[in-house]
Amino acid sequence: xxxxxxxxxxxxxxxxxxxxxxxxxxxxxxxxxxxxxxxxxxxxxxxxxxxxxxxxxxxxxxxxxxxxxxxxxxxxxxxxxxxxxxxxxxxxxxxxxxxxxxxxxxxxxxxxxxxxxxxxxxxxxxxxxxxxxxxxxxxxxxxxxxxxxxxxxxxxxxxxxxxxxxxxxxxxxxxxxxxxxxxxxxxxxxxxxxxxxxxxxxxxxxxxxxxxxxxxxxxxxxxxxxxxxxxxxxxxx
Length: 237
Hints:
The strands form two sheets. Strands 3-2-1-4-9-6-10-8 form an eight-stranded mixed sheet, sandwiched between helices. Strands 5-11-7 form a three-stranded mixed sheet. It has one domain (3-234): Alpha-Beta Complex (Spore Coat Polysaccharide Biosynthesis Protein SpsA, Chain A). By secondary structure, it is an alpha/beta fold. 38% of the residues lie in helices and 20% in strands. Helix 7 runs parallel beside helix 8. The chain contains eight helices and eleven strands. It has helices at 16-24, 44-51, 65-74, 95-105, 127-139, 164-169, 181-191, 212-234; strands at residues 3-9, 31-37, 54-57, 80-85, 88-90, 109-113, 116-117, 145-147, 160-163, 195-198, 204-206. It is globular, with a radius of gyration of 17 Å.
């Protein structure tokens, strides 16, 4: 098997079925689904047992983004791992096919990523999320590229595919409680001489919802976290 799909979940019963259905409608069919669930209480865990190849649980006490992601990798049988979470939704039906082709054709590419777009429905994304997504649309990279220097949003685990052997050799580091382990991993793997591919078919719809104030706080926390990751990356060997 060439591909494992790792999905992180926490009370995602309203959105997870749409993601699972989307995955089964992808043009690439040969994959397993591994769900790493963080003490869901809304039926997500039971749905995962019925619809995933493997289900792993992690407690609230144990949980970090890096640890849950590494747990998924430890259970993966595929040569590549595609990461997403239970409230994201791929936009292109050729996302998985595109990632597998890029990694098969480019042995020096460690992984492939896209970016997140707010859902179009106000039921899934608030106004602030949609405004941020609009400005990202105008400023972020648009065409496929193979990169050897860091670019904002590289290998975000809402939608990226990475070689499994690299994830096991260099696990995600649990250095920042607020996240950023994916960005740090991207910076580290570039320093080791690998390249990273960007492709618009890897874009996903992804929103947290909630209030506009919640989004502003999240965005400010993310900027702070990104600054911490940049400082850590400077000391990587």
